Each structure stands twice: as structure tokens, then as C-alpha cells.
Amino acid sequence: MIGKEEYIKYRFERAKESVEEAKILASNNHWNTTASRLYYAMFYAANALLLMIEVNTKTHSGTRSKFHEHYILTKKLNKESGSLYSKLFDLRQLGDYETFKIFTQQQIEPYILKVELFLELVKNILEDEH
Q1: Are 79 and 49 in contact (CB under 8 A)?
Q2: CATH number at residue 18
């Protein structure tokens, strides 16, 4: 059986991989899929944080809700982190499910750095707790 620590580490590694995938997609002007990978980076990182405090979720909406409850409302992370997660959730929904929705570089590229900075915050929290 996989232990809690290994699972948290795995989820955070997936978050970092998702950002790297987003950069590759961005370099090829695949902005809808870039937005999706950035969202998944946020999702995996939030999931790692929630697992650390033994909060399990079954859905994307559940993860987002519990992340806000345990990390944004408690001010362990700033409001901007919560807004970023929500914005990328919405962008992913639009890009994946809205017919004829095509994102541009100007709309998506700024989120790459924001997600990288968010992952640094998460990394610090994970390291502080261990």
C-alpha cells in the first residue's frame, strides 16, 4: 500500500510535470490545452495540500471547495491563490467544453508564471509540514 507521504509527493510531482507540459504546449501555440494543463497543476498541488491534512475529495469541484475552505479562508494561502485556481478551473471548462472557444497567447501565457509561483508556495508549505 502506498503511504501518505509517497502519495503527497506523487501529486506534487504531477503538478510540476503539468506545468512543464503546459510550457511545451505553449511553445507550440496550443493555448486551450495549455490552460488545461495549468489547471491540472493547480488541482494536483491543491490535492497534495489536502492530503497532507487528511482531507480526501472525489471530484474536481470538491477539491476546489475544500482547498478554499482549508487554505484560502484560513489565510494559509492568499486570496490570489484561490482566485487563480478558480480562474483556471473556469478556463479549463471553457477551453475543453465550449464549442469554438479558442484562447490566445495573451489570454493564457501570463498564467504560466503565476502557477509556477503558486507551486513554490505549495512546496514551502509541504516542506514546512515535514
Answers
A1: no
A2: 1.20.120.330
